[in-house]
Amino acid sequence: MTRAPLSLAPARANLRDHPGGGYVLTSTHGLPDPVDHLLVLLERWAERAPDRPFLAERPAPGAAGWTTTTFGETWRRAPHLAGGLRALGVSAERPLMVLSDNSVTQGLLTFATMAAGAPIAPVSPAYSLLSQDHAKLKDVAAQLTPGAIYVEDAALYGKALAALGLDVPIIARRNGGTHTVDELEQAAPFMASLGPDSIAKVLFTSGSTGRPKGVINTQRMLCSNQRAIEVMWPFLAERPPVLVDWLPWSHTFGGNHNLNMMLHNGGTLYIDGGKPAPGRFDETVRNLAEVPSTLHFNVPGGYGLLVDALEADDALRDTFFSRLDVIFYAAAALPQNLWTRLEALSMASRGERVHMLSAWGSTETSPLCTSVHFPIDRAGVLGLPAPGTEIRLVPTDDDRLELRVRGPNVTPGYWRSPELTAEAFDEDGFVHMGDAARFADPEDPSQGIVFAGRTAENFKLMSGTWVLVGTLRVDLVAACEGLVQDCVVAGHDREAIGLLVFPTPAGVAAGPEAIREKLAAFNDANPSNSRRVARLLVLEEPPNIDAGEITDKGYINQRAVLTHRAEQVEALFGQGRRSLGV
User: Fold this and answer.
1) Which of 84, 179, 299, 530 has the most CB within a 10 Å radius?
2) 459-572 placed in CATH 3.40.50.360
3) Per-domain residue ranges for the chain?
């Protein structure tokens, strides 16, 4: 049975010259006035659908069923928890620092902290659980000066808490801590006077270009972002969305885009305790088999594992696609082979292609700057500006367009870092994003822009030829057909391109020669020096989080890998290294 067309806003844009050079691209769709703060939305759904589940989680790892909190319960509990947080010393200047993975309790505390008039600062759990020196965790805590810390399990986070050594209250659900959530909830209710400029969160960047930076997220940013999505994706209002999601709330994708989308549209978020990592993905498969979602959000690494699982299990495939409106990818470009396989699975399951959509943004833009709200037939399209957002496009030396952003979704700056704040913006108030793009169709701006890599990643070979790392990396991963998890492109001021490869388990089993054969085939189809890979080194050690080589969303930091593995880069280009035929 063919479904009704998905309701999407028409693709329309306006392009004007910028007096300082380049262009400014905007949407022709207006941005309706957003609400003043997120608690307005929580109260709205508590009145309209008090018994509808808002957040759900497994009661314990591997357990059956789901523990939920409804919109009504969340709205009733938040002011009491706010009163308890205030009594502990959490305030506008002393945020609540969260170390744990997503949970219903963290969701409750998110809105309770806002009700207390304080920012919440969820921090990547990897800084606590995977790091050996806890250096990033200590740095983040020193920047925040938290009023209290929340962990799900005080024993699990015991080493991290000891490394911090802070004399602040520790709120925990189990195994220790100085206070429990139940104790906090006994306090008298409190509700701060909030407005658009109130700081809702401090979210930290991954530290890919230095120490993690605390990005101020105001209520205006978060609320305007969801209002813009409402304009571009009107289908969200047609039925309450349902989402099974693992993406961490310590990042803007999961914590702002996805969580706030469920709040804005009265949807239900099933917190996935799995993730696309060894030993964790089986839980994701179990959850997806039980809860048919209307939306699926993921990063390319997650889609690689998901496609394998869907191709191996027709029942899982049919459940997954049964109610699905949209497959959405972000955080990195999706290899085209995964795109093709997802479309084929959709056709096999329900006889039509699922809508593949994407967007582009950053922690500094809460997160969405552009959105795909029109049909596309390939990966890499970033879409058009969100209503209210201006995209400045500045020509670069390598024939790309540097992207800068201005709008109500943009941060006012970094937490207690006026110098970093001043550096982040140009003379017209556009924030530097560090990304580049091209027009999908130079004659028609309404076709959107296409990702063209990070501005700092590209390099020149000795011949003076530019190598566009972002697009090349995605094409190489796709060419290796499941043997490569990710790769790092090297060759600055060298005669030819070299490749450092992080193999998948299948790639480890197949061996370097199998990867070499895939790359040789790629070279046959890509003979130019700017695309042809001359040297290959398959890495045995996984990416190192302490060295900043990888985020907990699975994104590889090219610069950090090249810096941390400088000796291996030299070995890659050494005389004894076998070439790929160049």
Assistant:
1) 84
2) no
3) 459-572
